Amino acid sequence: MAEATATNQKTIKLHITRQDTADSSPYTEEFEIPYRPNMNVIGALMEIQRNPVNSKGQKTTPVCWESNCLEEVCGACSMIINGKPRQACSALLDKLEQPIRIAPMKTFPVVRDLVINRERMFSALKRVKAWIPIDGTYDLGPGPRMAETKRQWAYELSKCMTCGVCLESCPNVNDKSSFIGPAAISQVRLFNAHPTGEMNKEERLEALMQDGGIEGCGNSQNCVRSCPKGIPLTTSIAAINKDTTKHLFKKWLGM
């Protein structure tokens, strides 16, 4: 809820965790901005950018953050808002308790302020080859069609926007762990279900059977509860766990 000042003008109070460089210590800076109906957290950060003055009336540097689509599709504006990792573009100020506390996600290294380095997540996708390799196949004509029943649940997995919220909420993903995280595991299920992607199925499963792979999941189920797109991540982890077990038995039997 917005608060009213002595002049009856509603304002929004924000406590933002900031960090000037990747190696400097974090600190908290407080801001108070004019209230506007239907404003989201991105709008509040843009207000500070237009007038970078903190609540003490001191001139300061604008807060740095990342955003792109502003409609919860790109995943770039992930941050911790009032203690929960989520998308800033869909976080409406009217629905947030004041003071609104904003901080960068802790699972990833901070570059500056709310900007983080998500290289860990992208490296995980490279590790499991989370794409459909079509080089050299374009001249073979259209590939096989995916069954409608499979396409429907595969579409749900394709909604992943690499936002990193599932990794942030997972207790097994941290700087002391090499766990690949739920997003990459779910993407293995997605691309292994594709008729063309299935050609690399065993290669993806092998990647998840290495150190830091699927065995690192502790089944806390935080990921599926926090995913902004409602992706059935734990269902994917269970399915891939079954697939890796079957693949292991086949290797033992020389099949």
UniProtKB/TrEMBL annotation:
Family annotation (NCBIfam families): dhsB, PRK08640.1
Protein name: succinate dehydrogenase
PANTHER family: SUCCINATE DEHYDROGENASE [UBIQUINONE] IRON-SULFUR SUBUNIT, MITOCHONDRIAL (PTHR11921:SF29), SUCCINATE DEHYDROGENASE IRON-SULFUR PROTEIN (PTHR11921)
EC number: 1.3.5.1
Organism: Paenibacillus residui
EC class name: oxidoreductase
Entry keyword set: 2Fe-2S, 3Fe-4S, 4Fe-4S, Iron, Iron-sulfur, Metal-binding, Oxidoreductase, Tricarboxylic acid cycle
Gene3D superfamilies, per database record: 3.10.20.30, Alpha-helical ferredoxin
Cofactor: [2Fe-2S] cluster; [4Fe-4S] cluster; [3Fe-4S] cluster
Pfam family, one: Fer4_8
Domain 4Fe-4S ferredoxin-type: 151-179
Entry similarity comment: Belongs to the succinate dehydrogenase/fumarate reductase iron-sulfur protein family.
